[in-house]
Design a protein that fits this description.
The protein is of the alpha+beta class. 40% of the residues lie in helices and 21% in strands.
Amino acid sequence: MSTELIITEKPSQSLKIAEALADKKPVKKTEKGVSYYELKHKGKDILVGCAVGHIFNLKEKKSNGWTYPTYDYEWQPSHKISKSAEFTKKYLDILKKLSKQADSFTVACDYDLEGSLIGYNVIRFVCNKKDGKRMKFSTLTKDELIASYEKAYKHLDFPLIESGEARHVIDWIFGINLSRALTLSIKNATKRFKIMSTGRVQGPALKTLAERELEIKSFKPEPFWELESIGEINAKHKNGSFWKEKEVNDIYKNIKNEKKALIDSIKKSEFPQSPPSPFDLTSLQLEAYRALKINPKETLEIAQELYSASYISYPRTSSDQLPPSINIKKILTDLSKQKEYKELCLELLKENKLIPNNGKKSDPAHPAIHPTGETPKKLGERQKKIYDLVVRRILASLSDPAKRETQTIELKIKDEIFTTKGTRTIEPGWHKFYGRFNPNKDEELPKLKEKQEIKIKKIDLLSKETQPPKRYTPASIIKELEKRELGTKATRSAIIESLYTRNYVKDQSLEVTNLGLKTIETLNKYCPEILDEKLTRDLETDMEKIREEKETKEKVIESAKKDLDKILKHFKENELKIGKELSEANQETLEKESVIGKCQKCKEHDLKIMYSRRFKSYFVACSGYPKCKTTFSLPSYSLPKPTDKLCEECKSPIVLMIRKGKRPYDYCINKQCPKKQEWIKQQQELAKKSE
């Protein structure tokens, strides 16, 4: 009897697929901490194993030290390339074992560029096959998984695979060559070794942020004035801003002692407000940041967790549309079983509101993000918030437009006209369904009549200055990158995270550091092609053409190599100048941005974050060494960053610890901190209980 191996991308997907397809309960087997499943589906033997993301990655065939350019790459198991990927070896070993027991193969990884490539690499490098079947699904619900299996494509999606492989190769050759060029420029110019990084998208993204930073730094405020009437209603002069002080002073002198105003006109205008469209990934990240102050990277992580638990659909989508094929009636019926959504869902079902206000963006692989209807069993606080946001967004998109009314009142004070506006909601429509996430606030004005006289308490002459443009936030920069067609929906938040890690930006307001500014200034001066948005956009277009079968993978990669050769040739001509300027910026940044506070022991020198090459770890030490030998160890496998915070308990400096793939956290450097000691004691007690 034949045996089929289904290959998934994550352990949670393996479990969901096994449970969905099994005639009876699937048999779970575990080796070296890795689980796989044996089951029968309509009498057929099936094995389900997972690839835990990219278990193969690109590596130089032969190490050439730090020389560039290098285009000599090959696919290798990830655990042979990076120590941080050592955990993938046991998953690879299990897949090798399972592949020997199977004679047919089906890929059930996420249906996108990355998932298609992950599955194909397992098919060709582990199963030693050229093709296999392909499941396509957008939710991990039982019904959709069964349908996806029974309607599986007979062949793999090679245009998607080749587009994904081209992206992987191009990102690799740009990343490794440009980063080596920057690093070697410093070494060759100054004999210092400092790892630098940039990439195909990272460079243009940093340039976008740096341009805004320079606008802010060069901004020169201009004075202007406003007149405001304070009384039964507050209103501002119809001119708005006055740019000539004499003009505003003359008006102010004429009316400053007035205590009454006449209602000159009242105008009301009603307007409908359309419901929002369902979420694509970018709009979800923007809204989560606006309404919940959750960063885009974390929003994606949480959405992925909710998808893996089968509570929402696949989050890495560019679509804000729900196609007719999605059974909205069933989703609403299932959601009505959850207490907080019962009344809202029953109302939509009663009125037969089953057509969403779809947006204009589409994605050939996945629909807009939506709830599946399955009731969550246990969610963390932030998971609850993102889940609630996704559910209410769909409910709002299905409901009626809201009706709002704007009232504009003009007051006459002597011969001067002052005006004020207030907008209120007449019919809530979709506002009711969006609940606390509704951004609209009512600004209702008191009931007044034309020619009515009202009292004025005072008239203020306000002196103001123009403000510089605002810095980007982690959410608004993602929107800007999407607008400029830089990066992809799935990679933009990771690109911003890498800018933080490399110390190019800091803080939530994305302030570009001196190192980031100097890097952009230097590259703009000597090799601006590295920062060229058009080159990046053109490559994105070419990779999309591969997916559409209008271009070949080989041709696009060769074209990218030619572009990179030109960039590196120009870079080499200016290597020493670039290295000298970047080295100076690094030294200045290191001095400024490694200090976390004054040493509490010697009271004279600074405490600094330092790195031990011997132990390959960061620590904090007094800059007065050897006179002052104060040191503090820091957690391993984390990148420490200074903060302006002090521990509430012991007043020691707080360091922000950044861990790859995990959320950053605040860390008190004082091991004797009473709060930390209490936490350690609790952990020890929990460990004893678990034994």
